[in-house]
DNA sequence: AAATATGTTCGATATCATCGGACACCTACA
DNA sequence: TGTAGGTGTCCGATGATATCGAACATATTT
């Protein structure tokens, strides 16, 4: 067999994997006990116990009530990771602004480890309810902003991406064919913006644009999402793209000068 | 020497400490290189390199530009940890509401590993700028909401706390004497709310109350902070406490029935 | 009271995390 | 051009340790 996949990268800290397996498991369903985690991950109870105790001693998890919960130090980590993105404040403001003027959901994604990650989000209707789902991930090829980001990738990066990624069928419309994706990206490059017609979620449309830095490399992607019966026709195909292109342009300028 | 402090808890996953040392270091000043982290932590370059590579392979950190940055998976962790607190939405709303009506900063703390951690915060003036500093920590004895929480501790828990904690002098007014603290807590218990007169930061006053669950155990603490020249007299000593007590009561009811 | 499940501790063993050293690469700077 | 200092990366040896299974304690249930 060829060394196709490098199944286990050599010279890694093995216990780190165990540790994060445990953490992810605790994250998944908070309040889990030692035995539950042990059963789910197929590690010896004593091993899980050791890790959980270590994590608690180091104050990264908490033993509240019956089971274990992620500690708030991760909130600190997360805020740091978020604020570390140049222009985050500007991005957040712009996202809220677009959500308000359009009355639809607006979000900003960044690319990380070949995934699209929500960095900011706002839901229009009530300005209070902001940032739902921040930090969660979806495949780049299945998000309008994600496709807009992919369209800005160099040929080299794109080839790498297409080779590594495993396409998942989120809906019947999700792009799962490399050639179709390349074709779509070419169109996006030409137009300057991307559409998403029920490729992420049935009944949901979206428009997306890439936001690039001074050197033209993508910082992230901005998109507006809404029900397909509302996002259609002229509004969907012209007005929203124009709005987003303007917003992206403004963002790019502001970020460059901050 | 007596086994007073249990300096190193036995049977812990040692490499976890190294791992989190590295992570904290990367968090501290984002964009650090292998050598910088190695020098700062006094681990061999190869060791740091190994950990960083592992963390990158597992997609918890990112190699952007010159150095390493915390990955956005921690944002996901953090949001999970935050949302895991029962009634977080209600808390956030209430905090925003209080900030708006008072025009001062309002925040909600929870206790975790004997620290007060910001769970929600709002700054009054512009409702957009919300949640600054979420996830950061201050000593319980040095925050008004923290003292309110301490006042609800059982004698057992309080004794443990006072024994473990190392008092730090944040300002000249910070309480650093166990007896003074106990005295203060007794007063708070009697009154039902706590004051903070420049004990955290010079020129800053605050009022705090505890929020308890159905069983009377503290969920967290609610407080209003502002410049000492504005928070004084009748307003500070009566109006704000009343407002906060009402808010806490309302919160307690809403959380109990959610 | 027996029985099941769960948290916790312990001992043995093979694994592995750590370190220091070596190499390759890059940038200055002479 | 060549040397010197810095950095990222790889490697080998060794002492430390993460893992497992078993055993014990405790709690809850039957």
TrEMBL record, chains A, B:
<keyword id="KW-0804">Transcription</keyword>
<dbReference type="GO" id="GO:0003677">
    <property type="term" value="F:DNA binding"/>
</dbReference>
<dbReference type="InterPro" id="IPR011991">
    <property type="entry name" value="ArsR-like_HTH"/>
</dbReference>
<protein>
    <submittedName>
        <fullName>Helix-turn-helix domain-containing protein</fullName>
    </submittedName>
</protein>
<dbReference type="Pfam" id="PF09339">
    <property type="entry name" value="HTH_IclR"/>
</dbReference>
<dbReference type="GO" id="GO:0045892">
    <property type="term" value="P:negative regulation of DNA-templated transcription"/>
</dbReference>
<dbReference type="InterPro" id="IPR050707">
    <property type="entry name" value="HTH_MetabolicPath_Reg"/>
</dbReference>
<dbReference type="InterPro" id="IPR036390">
    <property type="entry name" value="WH_DNA-bd_sf"/>
</dbReference>
<keyword id="KW-0238">DNA-binding</keyword>
<dbReference type="InterPro" id="IPR029016">
    <property type="entry name" value="GAF-like_dom_sf"/>
</dbReference>
<dbReference type="InterPro" id="IPR014757">
    <property type="entry name" value="Tscrpt_reg_IclR_C"/>
</dbReference>
<feature type="domain" description="IclR-ED">
    <location>
        <begin position="73"/>
        <end position="257"/>
    </location>
</feature>
<feature type="domain" description="HTH iclR-type">
    <location>
        <begin position="13"/>
        <end position="72"/>
    </location>
</feature>
<dbReference type="GO" id="GO:0003700">
    <property type="term" value="F:DNA-binding transcription factor activity"/>
</dbReference>
<keyword id="KW-0805">Transcription regulation</keyword>
<dbReference type="InterPro" id="IPR005471">
    <property type="entry name" value="Tscrpt_reg_IclR_N"/>
</dbReference>
<dbReference type="InterPro" id="IPR036388">
    <property type="entry name" value="WH-like_DNA-bd_sf"/>
</dbReference>
<dbReference type="Pfam" id="PF01614">
    <property type="entry name" value="IclR_C"/>
</dbReference>
